[in-house]
Amino acid sequence: MKKFLFIVAVALTSVGYAQTDKGDWMVGTDFGLSYETSKVTTKVGNETSQTTNTFKVAPKLDYFVINNLSIGLGLEYKNTKVKDGDTTNTFAVVPQVHYFFPLDTNFKPFLGARVGYGYSSTEVAGGNNKTKADGLVVGGRAGVAYFVNNGAAVTGYLDYDHQNFKNKDNKDITFKKGTFGVGIGVAIFF
């Protein structure tokens, strides 16, 4: 733990090159909280709604292909709890793109988009039943990065995620979730 804190302290206090120039790398993670309304639909038309709270952590690695435009790969983990007690854990691998608007300040607004594959496992409350599903994950975000120096930034953002999953045991059951959330993140640039 001491080594990790030392590395973070050095990264936050070191002076590097310009933050979002072509050829630079960005490594970081996001933490998000969201409130979600989801619908579960079967092909015969049955539909149920749920209200949930979600926590998300998403490490990422991006490369700047041109000034201010990065492409990369993110890994996402979400823990979702439904009011009746069901718990869902979702893992996703998502290629992503970010654009940072160049300003002459420490603040840089940004937009991001991602699309990828996700897998979820739900434990139903009050029983031993477990549901597994997988499918498409799509998302977008708008936020602001505050550069504490040339090598590190803190971000705040609004986020939207959409999942279109099919039950692994019964493909007639689909899970479509739309999630709006807010999040914070940290990023190191080198």
UniProtKB/TrEMBL annotation:
Residues 72-189 form the Outer membrane protein beta-barrel domain. Pfam families: OMP_b-brl. The lineage of its organism: Bacteria, Pseudomonadati, Bacteroidota, Flavobacteriia, Flavobacteriales. SUPFAM superfamilies: OMPA-like (SSF56925). This is Outer membrane protein beta-barrel domain-containing protein. It comes from Capnocytophaga haemolytica. Coiled coil: none annotated. Keywords: Signal.
